[in-house]
Amino acid sequence: MSNHLLIVEDDELVQSLLAAYMQNEGFKVSLATTGKEMLACIDSEAIDLVLLDLGLPDEDGLVLARQMRARSSLPIIVVTARKDQKDRLAALEIGADDYLTKPFDPEELVLRVRNLLGRAGDGDTQEALRNRTETFRFMNWTLDIGAHSLIDGTNNKVSLTRAEFNLLAALAKAPNRVLSRDYLLDAISQDADSPTDRLIDVLISRVRKKIEANPKKPEIITTVVGCGYKFSARIE
Ligand code: CA
User: Fold this and answer.
1) Ordered domains of the chain (ranges, CATH)
2) Of 42, 70, 202, 233, which residue is least crowded by CB atoms under 10 Å?
């Protein structure tokens, strides 16, 4: 079964090149040139991942990413000509899973898409097999690695982005150990060669808002000043 990508891009040349490349890589591709088309497509098709240009004619991509994130945890990769670090952080802060600036190497984009879609599990490695059955219970939470879900005490699923989920999983797998930001960056398979420690801080803060009773006084993910973060809740 091929994964279904939605390419949101108003530059026709870029759009058609990208579409041809991704189709050639075995993906099913849908296209949108405006925010309106994008939202319509998400509602009517089973999209697995969105490639989102920030500069669209009708709506700012950051606003769209936020709207999308409010409704689902559909993976989003922002692909844009904006090189500003502030834009990059803003995109990640509102829930985009990854960020790539134009011009980019299409091969790299494919790698990141596959990463986000979790293709790593296809090989039935020991890690994948173990992940499929691994579950962590802490406080009132249940983190199910295989199902990629976080369930609260009243059995409701909490929506986490791929990066947030991977971050929480990496922490829960190493309870009471201090994990450095570098380690955590690797664990979420983000763009390792570019910034930043700040990305981990942003993700940590988002995960805390979702799982901590008081995000300002976290009890599950604690900060170890100068070192990193630690999963401090007792795993049952
Ligand atoms: Ca554009």
Assistant:
1) 4-130 (3.40.50.2300), 133-231 (1.10.10.10)
2) 70
In whole angstroms, how large is the CA radius of gyration of the chain?
18
Q: Coil, helix or strand for 212?
A: coil
How far does residue 57's CA lie from ligand 1's centre (Å)? 7
| pLDDT for 126 | 46
Compute the distance between CA of residue 33 and CA of residue 148 in angstroms, rounded to an integer: 31
Distance, CA 54 to ligand 1 centroid (Å)? 6
Q: What is the pLDDT of residue 196?
A: 63
Q: What is the pLDDT of residue 130?
A: 55
pLDDT at residue 181 in the model: 80
Q: What is the pTM of this model?
A: 0.58
Taking Cα atoms as reference points, which of 113, 98, 89 lies closest to residue 205? 89
In the predicted model, residues of the chain with pLDDT beneath 50 are 119-126, 190-193, 195
CA of 99 to the centre of ligand 1 (A): 15
E strands, the chain, in order:
4-8, 28-32, 49-52, 76-80, 98-101, 135-138, 141-144, 149-151, 157-158, 178-180, 221-224, 228-231
pLDDT score of 133? 66
Q: Residue 34 C-alpha to ligand 1 middle, in angstroms? A: 9
Distance 62 CA to ligand 1 centre (A): 12
Total length of the chain:
236
